[in-house]
Design goal:
- By secondary structure, the protein is mainly beta.
- The protein folds into two domains: 70 residues, no CATH class; 107 residues, Immunoglobulin-like.
- The chain is 0% helix and 44% strand.
- The mean pLDDT is 91.
């Protein structure tokens, strides 16, 4: 992942997800392939598709074959509070597990470097964003956390997101909390 590759170098490995099919074609066909994933967490699922011509008797499985890439991040909100007592804490704790779509872990200075991603939480109320706070690496691979200060009672929506400014990959998760 860290070394450059020459054009047409094989990039996949035997552990990559794959689907194989044999089509009995009598003439060239324009084929569309669609992939959806991951199945968990549900809000991370994305759909990608690609279309290309396939002539009869010709294989498209050379080298890496026909590659579809699922962009984004899988974001899971962990230990989400549904209610907090304003008199006791005045903070909404936010804890999330953020991975690449393939499930690869994110760590500071790691293969997938947390320092290169923006991982944050947005506090909203009544459809209006109130503040955004960055989430810090929580000491375990792919775990990030922080606290959002709240000053008033009410219903709040917390959106946790991960964003890669290098390519725009984004993933998110939401939860609602009542401050009493």
């Amino acid at each position: 992942m860290k070394d450059g590759h020459a054009r047409r170098d094989l990039l996949s490995d035997p552990k990559s997800a794959k689907f194989s099919a044999t089509l009995d074609l009598d003439r060239p066909r324009r084929i569309t392939v669609t992939a959806t994933g991951p199945s968990s967490p549900k809000q991370a699922a994305t759909i990608v598709s690609s279309t290309q011509w396939v002539p009869p008797g010709k294989s498209i499985d050379g080298d890496d074959g026909w590659v579809l890439e699922l962009p984004g991040f899988a974001v899971n909100a962990l230990d989400t509070p549904t209610e907090i007592d304003l008199a006791a804490t005045q903070k909404i704790p936010v804890h999330a597990k953020v991975t690449m779509m393939c499930g690869c872990p994110i760590t500071p200075n790691g293969q997938w470097d947390a320092n290169k991603f923006e991982i944050a939480a947005i506090l909203a109320q009544g459809g209006k964003n109130l503040r955004t706070i960055p989430l810090s690496y929580a000491g375990k691979p792919s775990e990030f956390g922080g606290d959002i200060d709240v000053a008033a009672k009410g219903e709040y929506e917390v959106t946790i997101y991960a964003y890669d400014p290098a390519d725009g990959n984004t993933g998110l998760n939401r939860f609602t909390v009542t401050v009493r």
